[in-house]
Amino acid sequence: MKLSVYVLGRDVGVLEQVGDFKSVLTYHAGAAENDLISLTMPVRTESYVWDDQLPPVLQMNLPEGYLLQVLQEQFGPHVGASPIALLSVIGRNMVGRLQVAATGADLGEPAKPFEVAALLKGDNSEAAFAQLVRQHATSGVSGVVPKFLDAQQVALVPLAAHRKTSLITHRHIIKGSSHRLPFIALNEYLCMQVASRVMPAAKTEVSDDGQALVVHRFDVNRNGQPHWGMEDFCSLLGLRPAAKYDTTWERIARAVRDHVPGNRRLETFRQLATVLLLTYALRNADCHAKNLALLYTSRDDVHLSPTYDMLTTCVYAGYQHNPPGIEFMGKKTWTPGKNLQKFIAATFGIALKEQLQMVEAISDAVADVGPRVREAMKAHSGFSDIGKRMLMAWAEGINGLREERVYAIGDWKAGAAFKSFSAPPKLVSPKVKVGSSPLPGKR
Fold first, then answer.
1. Is there a contact between 153 and 146 (Cβ–Cβ < 8 Å)?
2. DSSP-based three-state secondary structure for 67
3. Tens-digit pLDDT profile for residues 284-306
4. Which of 400, 286, 421 is nearest to 338 (CA)?
């Protein structure tokens, strides 16, 4: 199978699958220097050969988990279930400035505009998602979501059965919650409010019922047209998406040195240091290589994307004991001691004095957002225990950074929001039976 690869609508190269486990990407002779498909693949006459079914930058755009399974089941009988075949289905609607289509095919009309107000005001996120899908089923990811979110299908395969669900539109990424991760949309919204107070962050809005999150895309221009190339650190490090936890902050720093121009490198390291500190403050164990990305228009115009996908993961059963997602100095631990400041100074070049200012700013941001968590607890009874756990996790995270063995800043003035509430029930991890069949009836 051959696919044409487009940059901002320009046909710049051809991707071809060779055998079962090799792919070849070749730029057209007239491709301009700034029409690079990846920061790791500058324009050249020689083809790029990968001992994999897709180059990393295109693997980055394949859905994961349940959505990938649905793609394979629904489109496999028609186009095949290989990654390149599935890419031919979703390739018209990818994050970033790349598009992919079968050679000779028309890219088609741009995605229809979407007004988020109806979704945000809705009181049933499943119904809102179903309506959204019916209106936006014209492109890759959107075209597959109706297979399990269409109004006539919801009763059979409800949104709540899945761990996470997201949908890409022209200007937004829409995320839903689930029974397994209730109010995860509201969780992310509140964490993003903290992040936005200390660093560039994706703009987010949450629905009135707290079950759907709208993330405004930062890879498009004011008119919703693709502008920036976007490449996460799985792609930059040549990792498959499934290996998103199998890297280190040291490797991420080396990738920054390889791809970010010198005049923007220190600011990029400042932002990465802030992200790292935020993961400790918010107890976010889901910070991995796919949740960090570079934006670019050319090799001379590269910078870190606004932060996104910030969560407090430890508030959910089964995730409460997870370590940080990315290791440094050979460890993944919530009690890094002085190694944290030493690592940030040595690897990112951020002096201790500036690190202390970062910790103070994050402490203030958490204290500022605390009352909003309490407001959400009052507005949504089902969020009450989750909100309590978030406040407790944030307090533990901030105090952990400020304690003598880490930054030795001293006591934190958390504010009233972090006091005067009863302890939530203890989380119990669900028991998973390995090897049992779902076929026998219950006794």
1. yes
2. helix
3. 999 999 999 999 999 999 999 99
4. 400
